[in-house]
Amino acid sequence: MGNEYVEGNYAPVRTEHTVTELKATGRIPEYLDGRYVRNGPNPIADVDPDAYHWFMGDGMVHGVRIRDGRAEWYRNRWVRTSRMRMAAGEISRPPNHRAGVELYGANTNVIRHAGHDLALVEGGIASYELDHELDTMGPWDFGGTLPGGYTAHPKADPVTGELHAVTHYFGQGNRVRYSVIGTDGRARRTVDIQVPGMPMMHDFSLTEKYVVLYDLPVTFDARQAARIAVPRPLRPLRPAAALVLSALVGRVRVPDPIAAMVGARMRANENLPFRWNPRHQARIGLMPREGGSSDVRWFEVEPCYVFHTLNAHDAGDTVVLDVVRHPRMFVKDLHGPNEGTAALHRWTVHPAAGKVVEARLDDRPQEFPRVDDRVVGRPHRYGYAMGALTGAIPTDAVLKHDLRAGTVTSRALGRGKEAGEFVFVPSRPDAAEDEGVLMGFVYDATTGHSDLVLLDAATLETVATVGLPVRVPHGFHGNWLATGS
Ligand SMILES: [Fe+2]
């Protein structure tokens, strides 16, 4: 069976570049002062195509510095674990297991919070702090206040600036952890929430009233984990290892040293230890923001999987959740997220009636939904997404949803182009919701290079294109890290 996640623009790049002579066409807005940085998997070693899962590649960040209407540099850097530093012959520091398992460099997102640039990932893997030129400074555990890994999809409350998150980790037993990181970069509140079965909670939603949990039927798979953790020469021990793991995971909290050991035995660039689980009931949980585990109310929904939420908000007594919904996940395709059409979906939760009303907002295949960060948890009019073939395989399209008008605008970037996630940046703090630019990396299969493309968020017309002399492999998430933020 082929593995498309090792081919074309999914294939890793082998070199770290610093490019200061960049050609731009169009006009880069003067209000942009900062860096666009995007994370994604880029295996440092050769991978076994039969085994490799896209989510398991070593992290590499790609960034473009913009100031005074010009692009000053492009850089790409691996996110370095101590293991990678040792392999590369660089000076290593002792592993900080408090920050999470150092399996591979955090590969999923990059954010800026409390003055720190953070490369993020989920599942108990350590996050890392980066410097302004994308070099890794070290593992990050929020000043020791949040050990054991974080998530790639925290939400910054636009009013308080605090960072809310839901974290899953197989070592936590039957629970996930909600946390609030203050504007000082330290956890001010954590809540352990009982959730049996170790579901993969890649994302969550935040409203003004609620923390919203997606307990969906992709769960930790002990057999898969044993295959990863036990090397091939010891294959006969895998069933026993799977038994031990399944006895531990979900029943007790795995002691940190054992969890760290199991995690360390797992190899980067291999299988993902999560699979579709038809016995796991799909449900949505609402927890009041200041509530505890016993305050969560659960609502059953049809089986599906959601990697990414567009946004959520309270509407009277109901809660509106806009998400990209996959019909199922990791049933047959164990190389990446590709099990049919992912489409924009709305769940309206009616707590008083104890039910959820499901509606399809847009049939077009799409992924990587984004909203204006200033309306996170509040009513939103617009949303943006990458057009997809199936799963998260990109097309050349960038989509703009007008959820008030019920319309969708699709911008085709051109033949041979393959889009990524596009991020909205407002032109000024009080700009209207679509007054600003969208930015993202676009691969051009005809040249083998990538561009940083800036679109007018109102019209989706191209504002500027920064040509890169290299390609940026398809990856996951990025953000505009404004200078001084
Ligand atoms: Fe994600």
Automatic annotation (TrEMBL):
<feature type="binding site">
    <location>
        <position position="153"/>
    </location>
    <ligand>
        <name>Fe cation</name>
    </ligand>
</feature>
<keyword id="KW-0560">Oxidoreductase</keyword>
<comment type="similarity">
    <text>Belongs to the carotenoid oxygenase family.</text>
</comment>
<feature type="binding site">
    <location>
        <position position="202"/>
    </location>
    <ligand>
        <name>Fe cation</name>
    </ligand>
</feature>
<keyword id="KW-0223">Dioxygenase</keyword>
<keyword id="KW-0614">Plasmid</keyword>
<dbReference type="GO" id="GO:0046872">
    <property type="term" value="F:metal ion binding"/>
</dbReference>
<feature type="binding site">
    <location>
        <position position="308"/>
    </location>
    <ligand>
        <name>Fe cation</name>
    </ligand>
</feature>
<protein>
    <recommendedName>
        <fullName>Dioxygenase</fullName>
        <ecNumber>1.13.11.-</ecNumber>
    </recommendedName>
</protein>
<keyword id="KW-0479">Metal-binding</keyword>
<dbReference type="GO" id="GO:0016121">
    <property type="term" value="P:carotene catabolic process"/>
</dbReference>
<keyword id="KW-0408">Iron</keyword>
<dbReference type="GO" id="GO:0010436">
    <property type="term" value="F:carotenoid dioxygenase activity"/>
</dbReference>
<dbReference type="InterPro" id="IPR004294">
    <property type="entry name" value="Carotenoid_Oase"/>
</dbReference>
<dbReference type="Pfam" id="PF03055">
    <property type="entry name" value="RPE65"/>
</dbReference>
<feature type="binding site">
    <location>
        <position position="477"/>
    </location>
    <ligand>
        <name>Fe cation</name>
    </ligand>
</feature>
